[in-house]
Amino acid sequence: MLKISSLNVNGIRAAHRHGFTDWVSQNKPDIICLQELRALEHQVPDPIQNMDYHSVYHTAEKKGYSGVGILSREKPIQIQKGIGVDWIDNEGRILMSEFEDLIVFSVYAPSGTTGDERQDLKMEFLDHFLPFAQKYLSGNKPVVFCGDYNICHKPIDIHNPKRNKNTSGFLPEEREWVTQLLETGFEDAYRRLHEGEEDLYSWWSYRAASKERNKGWRIDYHMTCPTLLEAAEEAVIEREWDLSDHAPVTISYSI
Amino acid sequence: MLKISSLNVNGIRAAHRHGFTDWVSQNKPDIICLQELRALEHQVPDPIQNMDYHSVYHTAEKKGYSGVGILSREKPIQIQKGIGVDWIDNEGRILMSEFEDLIVFSVYAPSGTTGDERQDLKMEFLDHFLPFAQKYLSGNKPVVFCGDYNICHKPIDIHNPKRNKNTSGFLPEEREWVTQLLETGFEDAYRRLHEGEEDLYSWWSYRAASKERNKGWRIDYHMTCPTLLEAAEEAVIEREWDLSDHAPVTISYSI
DNA sequence: CATAGTACG
DNA sequence: CGTATTATG
């Protein structure tokens, strides 16, 4: 059994203050994909660095901004930072760890909520990401792209689909992109294990007590190859932990 | 009996969180001279604005920076913001409230701790301040210049005079300036009521638990005319309140 | 609302 | 150490 968690920490230092190491020691995931570290590698709190995990980070050039990481009990046999597109790689958004019989990515798609310019870059990111990810589907190792895609796919994935139909994160072209990703062969593993179930979200605004009222969005995914979907046995969103504005999305795979 | 308090609040909003209105209602000063408001007038918390005091503020152009105020039970018959020197007035450092038989100033001298440039401006401020204040000594109303002068006068006023003899706030030329102010006729009323008493400070660094170890500086003064010194009956530094890194300096005058 | 950054003290 | 700012989400 291999347990993989994905979590946008909204600042690894803040998540540490909120009990990140407690969560790790109580849940013992084999692999943890982190997004939005908002720290340089040397700023990651020591107690996290001293956990019994191998850690790989791909941080942004800009201090306190973006950045992804992968923690794993096993040491990766290979890692890859970025995808060869300068502005994306400078923002620390895509990181791979390859293991003996599994490839894991931590992905942090840009937010488009701050304006048109960033929304355009978000779409550009998605356009780069799709063919990049596709290549790994035809490889001979199971692959999963875990992360914060900053997109809700379907109305069921957002608490107020009507009000948000023109909001970045639920725009038709963004939702269509997720559909394309699935049509190329990826699987939204969490949804596939919870078909039709409502009120399942992975992010809640800090404002207006959104989390306690469960007014959230499901924007964090395990996008798996078909093989891994078959191996997926249990998928949970760990809403009971308040480590950041996101909840960990954890799936156990029988490999 | 007229009770006048002087307090550097290090942010009126922060002081409010730390119990400013409790302090006011328990002590009921007639006049409160405030320094380092670090807020525009409309940002002063409502509970402070709604106290039974008249308030006058002279804020800095730069947001979140400097600024002085005077709260008084009586309504001032006249007020004066600044002293006619642009850079000083833009920084919100000197404010007057005139009453029937008293003139009160709230003064916030620049800090010189951030470097030579600001230290030079501090000395320039002091050079402007001295003749400005002097004029009021020859007037026919009692006058007091309350505030944070950012200078310790004598070794007795600082916990470690030797180590700080080259530190801004205890430099020979700054201490000499205070001596001159006193020689022109002003009185350091708090000291005059506590001659020779040691370990009396009004400011403690937030660092290194300075306050609980009483490693402080006395840099907040009531600089009074001789008439007011004679009227001064009780002078206290209210160290038991933790409203900011300074303690209120409160003197009761029998006028 | 919250986490970063930086300026200032 | 602590209170502000501003950028970002």
From TrEMBL, chains A, B:
GO terms for molecular function: double-stranded DNA 3'-5' DNA exonuclease activity. Residues 6-246 form the Endonuclease/exonuclease/phosphatase domain. SUPFAM superfamilies: DNase I-like. It is an enzyme of class 3 (hydrolase). Its EC number is 3.1.11.2. NCBIfam families: exoDNase_III, xth. This is Exodeoxyribonuclease III. It comes from Fodinibius salicampi. The gene is xth.
